[in-house]
Specification:
single chain; DUF6698; 11 helices; Unplaced genomic scaffold scaffold_36, whole genome shotgun sequence; DNA-binding
Length: 273
DNA sequence: AACGATGAGTGAATGAAGGC
DNA sequence: GCCTTCATTCACTCATCGTT
């Protein structure tokens, strides 16, 4: 609401602005109907490639398509990019035809719409999970000490006993005060291949078998359900009154990309600003 | 310093479905 | 039929970062 301290005094709220738009366009109507490409872009970002430059992907994809190139001759990177382009075409009805009859400028516009969807979905999921994750990590019938506000990112990360333990790289001992101090102070840098223990089943890491239980934690399952089925499907009988994202987009199985997406989102919810 | 692009975060609109 | 709840999407503001 307008209690947002960042909002300048006297400036209209977004709701007020929308209300004025509604007056121009009639009651209970969105100012503009959204291009379906944005809708499909949302799922593309979640299930195929999160941090994708769609414009580059589409431009390069069209270029390769025009050349009728032998995929075996491509580099691994190009081959992967090309397969993602095909995934995009497959999940977006009419996209291929639309691209084929579009000018260069229109192709860029189309890519922007898909990008807008992907970025928007990411922002929405970040927002939704930020508060939900507090419920998932709080033991039943207990409260976290110190308390972590549901809608504030500050106070998480290594600053908090509980989130710090979950973020602690597998193989390190969060119980060791020296290790903990180095993590909190930032003196100990964590490399990209040091997985946090929150990704492991039962938060348990086996140094003899680092792949055992990786990406199988209950936290990731909850996050996956939250995003792809519905928030209410996480830890109770779902009481959703409409289809979740998976059904809307015809998603029948977990993909590597969707797992990576969920993992990224979960990590983000634990990090401070 | 000014500017633009981008991302994070917010509140509200919309639509679907169930309950009464 | 109306009301309520829930999931999803949208428009918006503000902060941050890179470039000029």
């Amino acid at each position: 609401m307008s209690s947002d301290p960042r909002r300048q005094a006297g400036s209209p709220t977004s709701g007020q602005k929308r209300a004025s738009n509604a007056l121009e366009l009639g009651p209970r109507k969105r100012p503009m109907t959204q291009d379906p490409l944005v809708h499909h872009g949302r799922h593309f970002g979640r299930a195929v490639h999160t941090f994708c430059n769609v414009q580059t992907l589409v431009t390069n994809g069209l270029s390769l398509m025009g050349e009728d190139v032998d995929e075996a001759s491509l580099t691994a990177h190009k081959r992967k990019e090309y397969s993602m382009f095909h995934a995009l075409l497959k999940m977006t009805p009419g996209l291929e035809a639309r691209l084929m009859e579009s000018s260069e400028e229109e192709v860029i516009h189309i890519a922007d719409l898909i990008q807008k969807g992907a970025n928007g979905a990411r922002a929405d999921d970040t927002k939704g999970m930020k508060s939900a994750v507090i419920d998932w990590i709080t033991p039943k019938g207990q409260i976290l000490n110190p308390h972590i506000p549901r809608n504030v990112k500050a106070g998480r990360g290594f600053n908090h006993e509980h989130t710090g333990a979950l973020l602690c790289p597998a193989g390190l001992d969060w119980g060791n005060s020296e290790t903990r101090a180095k993590l909190v102070s930032g003196q100990m840098q964590i490399s990209g291949d040091q997985w946090p223990v929150l990704l492991y089943a039962n938060y348990s890491y086996d140094p003899e078998d680092p792949w055992n239980g990786l990406l199988r934690s209950g936290l990731l399952v909850s996050a996956f359900k939250h995003i792809f089925t519905s928030p209410s499907s996480v830890d109770q009988e779902p009481h959703a009154t409409r289809s979740g994202n998976a059904r809307i987009h015809g998603m029948h199985s977990v993909t590597k990309a969707s797992t990576a997406y969920v993992t990224t989102q979960v990590n983000l919810t634990f990090c401070t600003l």
